[in-house]
Predict the structure.
Amino acid sequence: MTDAAAARDKRWIALILLCSAQFVVVLDASIVNVALPTIGEALKFTESSLPWVVNAYVLTFGGFLLLGGRLADLLGRRRVFMFGLVLFALASLAGGLAGSSGQLIAARAVQGLGAAILSPAALSIVATTFKDGAERNKALGIWGAVAGSGGAAGVLLGGVLTEYLGWEWVLWVNVPIGIAAAALAPSLIAESHAEQEERHFDVAEATAKPTSPAMKVTLRPSRSASRPPSSSRLPNASA
């Protein structure tokens, strides 16, 4: 485990790790596009159900971002980041092993959930690890550039993997990256929480508005004069 002082010294190495995780999150929104005809033929998708290989990931990712941010504030940013990485990697493995269209769509939905958990936690770690001002701006600029390149790289990489290794590898490519990142995180990133005296999930609020993104979870903090940025309040740099 790494304390705050040690993590401070390793912050730029940690940024590489965090950017790599965000890169594969954005990558997975586009990497399967080129492989869709091959996937449809292999798993007997209908024409109407094939787009759900992409939609299941994107909708779940977007719908659960708020939940991911709240979990990071409440349970610890590093812990939630690592959990999201492992969930994302395992869902990628399951997707490549899918034997039917339903199994693949379910795996892609779980992938999206993992991405929604790890992405806001990673961004919050970036914002709290680097000093406010030029240093943080530089780190967020790097974060945004790497995340943005993931969408373009996905199309190219998806074509190469499908052509030479098979469609399964557009999913399996995430497995070693996710597991390696989760294993390295404790040695590079210090645990942190939102500095709030009172934190809890408002379950009534979460279930009262079913039209909100997937599950609206609210956290009612006590007022504090100064606290680090909340994961759920940070902008999504990959947008």
Q: What stands out?
A: Residues 203-228 have pLDDT under 50 and may be disordered.
